[in-house]
Design a protein that fits this description.
There is one protein chain. By secondary structure, the chain is of the alpha+beta class. The protein has 2 domains: 151 residues, Diaminopimelate Epimerase, Chain A, domain 1 (Roll), CATH 3.10.310.10; 160 residues, Diaminopimelate Epimerase, Chain A, domain 1 (Roll). Helices cover 16% and strands 36% of the residues. It has a 17-stranded mixed sheet that branches. A hairpin with a 7-residue loop joins strand 3 and strand 4.
Amino acid sequence: MQTAIRCTFMRGGSSKGLYFRADDLPADVGLRDRVLVAAMGAGARQIDGAGGANPLTSKVAIVRPSGTGGADIDYLFAQVVVGESRVDTTPNCGNMLAGVGAFAVENGFVAADDGVTRIRVRMLNSGNLCELEVATPGGKVSYDGDARIDGVPGTSAPVICNYLDVAGSACGSLLPTGNAVDVAQGVAVTCIDNGMPVVVLRAGDLGKTGYETPAELDGDGEFKRRLEAIRLELGPRMNLGDVTNKVVPKMSLIAAPRAGGHICTRTFIPHDCHAAIGVLGAVSVATACILPGSVADGIASVPGGAVKHMSVEHPSGEFSVTLEVGGTPDRPEVRKAGLLRTARLIMRGSIFVPADVWDGSA
């Protein structure tokens, strides 16, 4: 006996996963999480579910019409942690967010305009807002277009994501320790949260160039143990508590750009090196680059002007972030972060979970 649950399988940015209507899942959080693990698959291979045995393909978006003013829909992101049979809803995910607007239109949560539909999304993980611009010619979602993002083959319709006031989304403030630079395990770091809690470290301080491949970094066990020791020490200092079983903060090594961008990164999510970089992780790293006195000071190439178009290099290309900056040169404030993503509908129908996990009752 199995229970059928309506869902949609989509690529959002450079991630993919299952998109659910909130009312199709159990209301009880513990039961809901067990259902999500069953849907994605337990174990490191996730062979008995829809997950792809990788953090980037073991993601879930839960969407509903918003019950509060200022937003059209609510979006909860859930990371099904590969190999650990558990769910983490601490962080946001900007990649999966890229598909939320299309999902909302396809499910009748939002009426589409002819041309472009603007959808305000409340990210329930943090309570912050993002405005999505989704291509809807003739009032229908289009997935075809000329927009290209690194890490995804081909082109698609653009999805413009404008993040509004995301500073301190999980940690309570942009600089959760109150400092532009801290020291952990003898290494200088910048702890920052502009949509995603990130620890920024100079690659050279850990004996790396910052240009290694993900496989090279993942293969260095001693380096990864040191990186994890730094992460565990900084979790409480970033107001995240014990982060042993959390996927935040992310750890991002930085080096001088070498492919025409403004900073080069190697990001861990949190234990495996990302083939690219997460959306909100890129926003946080780009923000660290413009802060005087951060570990990026003197390494990043920062453009001038109040609107800064930042190119964040990563192992499979680059990620472009636009920061609208106010404040003063000594204390800059990011007022809005905008970026380009794409999304694609892959499949929709029902996913089945064992009835002994959930029999479909409320």
